[in-house]
Design a protein that fits this description.
mainly alpha, Arc Repressor Mutant, subunit A, globular
Length: about 200
């Protein structure tokens, strides 16, 4: 299936309500709604997927597979608490499934956590977020490396992916208190590391 859009798209930053409306339309067989969901989420899904498997072609294929699966199952889809979280979590499952073909289960989990979030942000993205000076780049890079993998993943989803804490909990398969803990600890560590007050 190749996604084509027959209605004009406005690529605004959609709210939860718009995502829910698009999801309902997809469930009722609207290909344009599926194409809009694809366009609105492609960049986020690609960037997230590339953190898991640094293979551009494979990530693109998995994103296409995800939307193909959604289309094939559209009549059987349930309401999603968060469409964005559902898409990220589903892509994560597809990519991990691919990793499992290459490695046994215990190796896969270790490799995933090491590869996925070893270099989660490039320095420039965090520089913009924290508005630090150019001479602090090295400190910031060291600060990011000081975070554990779960903290890096939570920070990525929160600040790059724009996910809510509830969405992060769903994606990472942890409770919401753990999300608060990971983000709070990561931010405190980053601030302390780069001498923020």
């Amino acid at each position: 299936m190749h996604l084509q859009v027959t209605k004009p798209l406005t690529l605004s930053n959609p709210g939860k309500l718009e995502y829910e409306e698009l999801w309902t339309e997809v469930r009722h067989g609207d290909k344009d709604a599926l194409a809009r969901l694809f366009c609105l989420n492609y960049s986020l899904l690609f960037n997230y997927g590339y953190k898991i498997i640094a293979n551009e072609a494979l990530v693109k294929d998995c994103i296409q597979d995800l939307f193909l699966i959604i289309w094939r199952r559209h009549e059987h889809l349930n309401d999603a608490y968060s469409v964005k979280a559902y898409l990220i979590q589903s892509l994560r499952r597809l990519l991990l499934k691919d990793l499992s073909k290459q490695e046994n289960r215990s190796e896969r989990n270790e490799v995933f956590m090491y590869r996925a979030f070893e270099n989660i942000y490039n320095v420039e993205e965090l520089m913009i977020h924290f508005e630090v000076e150019v001479e602090q780049k090295q400190k910031l890079k060291e600060a990011i490396q000081s975070l554990n993998n779960r903290e890096r993943e939570a920070i990525f989803l929160k600040f790059y992916g724009g996910a809510s804490n509830q969405e992060i909990a769903q994606i990472m398969n942890i409770n919401i208190q753990s999300v608060y803990n990971h983000i709070s600890k990561a931010l405190n560590n980053l601030k302390a590391f780069i001498n923020f007050v």
